[in-house]
Amino acid sequence: MATIDAPEDERETAGVGVGRGDEPLLSVEALTTAFYTDRETIRAVDGIGFDIHEGETLGIVGESGSGKSVTARSIMGLVESPGRIEPRSSVRFRGEELTDLSEKEYRTVRGGGIAMVFQDPLTSLNPVYTVGNQIKEALRLHQGLRGEEATERAIELLEAVSIPDAARRVEEYPHQFSGGMRQRAVIAMALACDPDLLICDEPTTALDVTIQAQILELLEDLQEERGLSILFITHDMGVIAEVSDRVAVMYAGETVESAPVEELFRSPKHPYTQGLLESIPGRHPDSDRLRTIEGDVPTPNAAATDCRFAPRCPEVFEDCHEVHPQPVAVGSGDEDHHAACLLYPEDTSRDAAVEHHVERKRERTGGEGE
Amino acid sequence: MSESVDPGVGEAVTTGPESAVETTEGDVLVEVEDLRTYYDDDSLFGAPVKAVDGVTFDVRRGETLGLVGESGCGKTTLGRTLVRLERPTDGRVLFDDIDVTTLSGEALKEWRRNAQIVFQDPDSSLNDRMTVGEIVREPLDVAGWRSAEERRERVRNLLDTVGLQEEHYFRYPHQFSGGQRQRVGIARALALNPEFIVLDEPVSALDVSVQAKILNLLEDLQDEFGLTYLLIAHDLSVVRHICDRVAVMYLGHLMEIGDTEELFADPANPYTHSLLSAIPEPDPTARKQRITLRGTPPNPRDPPTGCPFTTRCPAKIRPEEFADVGDELWERVEVFREVLRERNRADLSVRQRVKRLLGRRTQYDDVDEVITDLFDDAPVDVPEELRGHIGEAADRVRAGNPGKAVAYTDDAFSSVCDTEKPAYYAVSGSGRESFCHRHGGGYESVDDVVERKRSNDGLDV
């Protein structure tokens, strides 16, 4: 389950209930990651929040520049200078706050608890070591396995990701693997330390559809066997529809909508999500022209004081330029569907809805500033 | 369709691999005949890369023909050959009845006005040191088109046509977004009023919302200027949206070509089936059973002798003597063959070669584990004859000769798919053609076999 952001009262109690059955595996709150350059500050991720429960797949979808990958890197503690995770952000994994960890402490989480698969398998493999060596390195660092034992475990892992003839392939170098095989090897490395959460950052974007199908099938099998939770980042709506249980749609560093996957595709509420779905070729085979979203994705430079989608929004009205919309429940009976748009809640007058957002914003920022 | 008015389904149009999709309906702009483009074919060592290996098709005036396939299947090489950015090894490309493969010098330059290309990556196909105006004007300058003043005027009009502003003339490519850069590339292709444009993955580097704008623009331009497109893409939803006809390419060959809607709704070739079933649909409620192909496409330096798709085909014809072996067991045999081929393909490191020279075994010479994994827990008993063949192949591997093992299994387990190239068969009344032995008489239909595969969960490799 993932919500854009838990209401205030739930948030306070969340820290107490560690070990509760329904405690999310990963809980992200108010995560803000900014990059400070001489010219400008870029708030690549700006106050997003979501939960991932055990065995669940959360899909994050958005266009390039929406902050998807920075979100993944922030969770993994891989944000490098000039980037910085802002003080109020919180990333809790199995109840433990990760943003306070030192680099050394983080290393036990990375690989051990959370592992990551990147877009381009060739850049995540070292060309001068055999694939086996690289898997064995992870085994040595995290599980203290060496020698024969490590080799055997590496072969088992390659078999687990369906690489035929694994005993031989373990001795080969990355360049001797095809693209799909490489991505399998990277997944094997990620699995080496039995993680609970696998972050997949566009893992199939560089692959052909037939190979993509193989990898998606593999991830599904692994999730079933090992009870993995997956955070799946992609820009491909087709892939999102196929892999996710829940979806969060990102735009300019913020989550604009989140919902269970079927609900999101059936009744998207945020005008951006609607536009995104409309622009996919083939969803409306009868219409000749594809619907488009005018304009470009803005770069978020300062804390939002308005709706970042307003300049491109077909539904825009005056208040959109003055009020920063907050996530509100929009589901029909389904409480997990949230959208950050001044059009909602739908059952009140427009002025009341806007007031609701102003009120929520004040609550969330604790009356500070703005 | 060809001269015969209505060729029956399942009837071979021609018998050779040089078969054709000929057409009388619509006016043909480009005729491609048995075109081949090989790379490295003058090399002293090894075989050439057969990027395009004998394709024949027509592009009709005013249509959009889609060309789809996986990376490395030769679709980009084919597109580049059509506009003479590559020199074909063999075959003809007739453009308004002129064979352009033989053109050179002034004649080539003159013809090139008529055939342009838009490249995939707008980052690398525009010169960063030239202004947008200069980039779009370059083809006009090269062709010596009218006066300088008229050229500048033409560029301003072109920028306007593709949805850019006139004041963008003096800006540099890095000041533009990906979508805008692609518009510049399109404006440049339009500069000389071509009839035919090859669009090489024009939207695959773009986000969906931007992609939609470029696709709409391309359709508008086609209507306005009566353009003919060859659209190369790997995104099948784009192809379905924009193309009138589609050609599906695999390992240098056309596997199926025909009307878009028909091909998507009722694919004939096993490869088209697999490709279509692999696309994730943007609809979470769609529950389709995928056909997951095993392995990767073969090396184009060393393509299979028979059908190019034979090593991965889900509907491959079995040799008669093994007709009664169960599907799952047979799948294991095919996996075993794939392992042997992989081993034969693998380059041995110096260390391993020395080891072998010293008479010591390397891990390449051990197949027992593979055989145990594949066949010991097989669902049914492995028939004696099959086991014999596998043992024979294994002996050759143990002797350090994976090549001979491959040759042995090729011989023992081969069917018509391994040994003979299929013909093109008409598979519908509209002239759609498919390159597969199963359309010939006497075999179970592709649909039935694929349907059965979908329902049994095949061995996952």
Quick structural overview:
The complex is a heterodimer of chains A (370) and B (461). By secondary structure, chain A is an alpha/beta fold.
Please describe what this structure looks like.
The complex is a heterodimer of chains A (370) and B (461). Chain A has 370 residues and is α/β, with parallel strands linked by helices. Chain A contains twelve helices and 13 strands. In chain A, helix 4 (131-143) crosses helix 5, helix 4 (131-143) packs parallel to helix 7 (179-191) and helix 7 (179-191) packs parallel to helix 8 (209-226). The longest helix of chain A is centred in the middle third of the chain and has 18 residues, at 209-226. Chain A is globular and about 70 Å long. Residues 5-20 of chain A have low confidence and may be disordered. Chain B is an alpha/beta fold and 461 residues long. Chain B is built from 16 helices and twelve strands.
Low-confidence stretches of chain B: 1-10, 14-24
Identify the most extensive interface between protein chains.
A-B, 53 and 51 residues
The CATH homologous superfamily of the largest domain in chain B is called: P-loop containing nucleotide triphosphate hydrolases
Q: Number of DSSP helices of chain A?
A: 12
Give, in spatial order, the strands making up the sheet with the most strands of chain B: 6-7-8-3-9-10-12-11
Number-wise, the strands of chain B total 12
Order of helices and strands of chain B: EEEHEEHEHHHEHEHEEHHHHHHHHEEH
Approximate strand percentage of chain B? 15-25%
**What is the CA–CA distance across the termini of chain B?**
40 Å
Task: Output the CATH topology of the largest domain in chain B.
Answer: Rossmann fold
Q: For the CA atoms, what is the radius of gyration of chain A? A: 21 Å
